[in-house]
């Protein structure tokens, strides 16, 4: 009987007294016997905090969109339950009551039913969303092309693109507003009864990863500073063409042997994520490092540099992701972080965040920040 590895990482995982790490259990099951191995997975409280900070802003933005979709841009309060469900309705009612600077309640007199609409100030800011969407269009087209270029056959099932549409920042009508608008880049083809988003033309200038772009910037800064010696630091960062940015949790202190092994890994050459994965042996260490680069690039293409782990795993066949994806992410915890805060586990690209703040924001996220700021609270999305 083959052994099976089961990786347990949940909010109910065993914690130490100071709650600064979780113990991840890896159980090896063979011939009815059990053997447990425990690995320490250090928490990053700043990234956990991101999930808490997004709750109210997401409700505010969702309610804004619902109101804007209604006739005359006003929502009858009796129809709120039909839009969001009975349980969620009360969360939205609380938001309406708590933020009168954004939402105005009217009606309720005579024959007019109570309704909610945006305040004048909120409407003024909401009108800026159109410009943000226009600025996003070339970014979305570029990222969609790169998403397809990363895949084995330069195509991805259309339902999987829709599955991660929110993470990419795609509009609801992206097939009409993006796919059909750019026939020189995209087409939809039905293969074996399944619709695929297909790449029409390969562009070598796009086959450059976010990691390579960062390395080019750091190399320029290094040259300007006159530092020619390449060395690894105590935090695990190595300045080299095949190195990744490491951002370890505050509780993690790598020892000398760990840093030595990490330096060897940093120096190891590996194929570009944009080369076809079929060309490489799965067991090759260079191929395994390439998988890390693929995951890094996938997360870099999202708006907030994070993705629900189930959505990431949905692209297993298109990008030849490892069968033990969670174990791969845990092993490279200086690059990725998995949090179970929120309804589902989420994978972060750690270098994209400074504490709980996303470093680079696209136009639509900047608009969202401006709209949510009307609530009087500084909220990080």
Automatic annotation (TrEMBL):
<dbReference type="GO" id="GO:0003723">
    <property type="term" value="F:RNA binding"/>
</dbReference>
<dbReference type="InterPro" id="IPR045040">
    <property type="entry name" value="PORR_fam"/>
</dbReference>
<protein>
    <recommendedName>
        <fullName>PORR domain-containing protein</fullName>
    </recommendedName>
</protein>
<dbReference type="InterPro" id="IPR021099">
    <property type="entry name" value="PORR_domain"/>
</dbReference>
<dbReference type="Pfam" id="PF11955">
    <property type="entry name" value="PORR"/>
</dbReference>
<feature type="domain" description="PORR">
    <location>
        <begin position="42"/>
        <end position="376"/>
    </location>
</feature>
